[in-house]
Amino acid sequence: MPLMIEPMLARLTHQLPAGEGWAFEHKWDGYRALLYADRGRLRLLSRRHNDYTSRVPELAALAPEVGSRRLILDGELVALIAGGRPSFQALQMRIGPQMGPRPLGEPSQPALAYLIFDLLYLDGRSLLRLPYAERRAHLDGLVLTGPSWWTPPYQLDGHTLLEESRDLGLEGVVAKKLVSPYRPGARNGDWLKVKVPLTRTFVIAGWMPSDVHPDRIGSLVLGAYDITVKEAERSSRRPRLVYAGRVGTGFKQRTLELLQQILLPMRIEQNSLDEGGPPFGAHFVHPELACEVTFLEWTLGGEIRHPSFQRLRTDIDPADAAREN
Questions:
Q1: Residues 286, 288, 294, 297: is their CA dihedral positive or negative?
Q2: Pairing mode, if any, of strands 191-195 and 31-38?
Q3: Where would I find the beta strands (DSSP E) of the chain?
Q4: Cα separations (Å) of 212 from 206, 267, 269?
Q5: Distance, CA of 157 to CA of 84 (rounded, Å)
Q6: Is residue 72 within 8 Å of 2, Cβ to Cβ?
Q7: Is residue 158 part of a domain?
């Protein structure tokens, strides 16, 4: 059995592939990892060959299930938070590069799971040259299902799975040719990843100056209300504008010039946010303007990750820009 196999990689694209002959899987936001099982001994190696075995004690119970078999699995290590949704930040907190293994049972510790999507070696035989569909059939035949590991099913309808990923708040989908062999280390287009960004409306609470031109806008300071207008009316509680992060990409030059004209006269001296705040040096404005931003996920600290500006929303009331709008 090989001591190490380079994982096959997916090429990023912005739309699902056309035609038949593709399988579609959820794209899980975690760490890619290959599991080597050799007669009850397990090794979990990351894409960069880091050994995660001792950092994921949840997988120890998989050893007796595998028994005397020898196999190599490909999958994604994820950290599951409320609602069973994977969180990349929670995963980094648990087994990040600067962290050692944390004892099980800590109240704040996220649960880890290994989601298996491919089988590369089985009992003395390499499966790398087999088509994806045959490898998955062998994998499904193993029935590897436990409290911290399982094999999510794939679908042949990519559009349905993409919408499901959007509804579940997942990162997107991976498309794989049913006839494709497993090519270690390759990113040749046989596997494609399609990300599903989240889109939300935020209040513009201010801006951060550009590093190159301090008199110009470098990024927008964003806020979101903690409750909606209707929730505030029912509870008689005043909505609080909470810091949601910054966005500094996605702008067209015309939009930046327009923002410069609009925001400068709106500047105020006090912090327009009720809770949280950007780094020192932010300029604040009256929270009277909203914008639409796409991003991958909310961090555990309540900020948006990998945001991109889409457009101004002068057609809506900023008071409607609640966190879950």
A1: positive
A2: unpaired
A3: 11-13, 22-27, 31-38, 41-46, 70-80, 111-122, 125-126, 149-150, 172-177, 191-195, 198-209, 217-225, 241-247, 267-268, 283-285, 290-295, 297-298, 304-305, 308-312
A4: 18, 21, 23
A5: 23
A6: yes
A7: yes
Whole-angstrom Cα distance, residue 312 to residue 214?
A: 23
Q: Are strands 172-177 and 191-195 parallel, antiparallel or unpaired?
A: antiparallel
Tokens representing 111? 């649960």
Instruction: Compute the Cα dihedral for 199, 200, 201, 203 and give only its sign.
Output: negative
Provide the 10 A C-beta neighbour count for residue 148: 18
Task: Provide the number of structural domains found in the chain.
Answer: 2
- Residues 153 and 204 placed together within one structural domain of the fold: no
Same domain, 123 and 34: yes
Do 107 and 24 lie in one domain? The reply is: yes
Least confident of 32-46, 136-150, 157-171, 250-264: 157-171
Computed on alpha carbons and rounded to an integer, the radius of gyration of the chain in Å comes to 23
Known active-site residue 195: no
Query: What tens digit of pLDDT does each residue of 284-306 get?
Result: 999 999 999 998 778 888 899 88
CA distance 141 to 2: 22
Name 192's Cβ contacts closer than 8 Å, sequence gap at least 6.
Answer: 10, 11, 12, 13, 17, 174, 175, 176
Domain that holds residue 46: 11-195
- Which of 42, 44, 32, 31 is closest to 65 using CA atoms? 42
Q: What is the pLDDT of residue 205?
A: 96
Residues linked to residue 71 through DSSP beta bridges, in sequence order: 37, 122
Catalytic position from the list 27, 193, 230, 252: 27
Which domain-ending residue is among 173, 195, 217?
195
Encode pLDDT of 175-184 as tens digits: 999 999 999 9
What's the DSSP call for residue 55?
A: G
Give the strand pairing for 125-126 and 149-150.
unpaired
Beginning with the edge strand found earlier in the chain, give each strand of the sheet holding 22-27 in spatial order: 11-13, 191-195, 172-177, 22-27
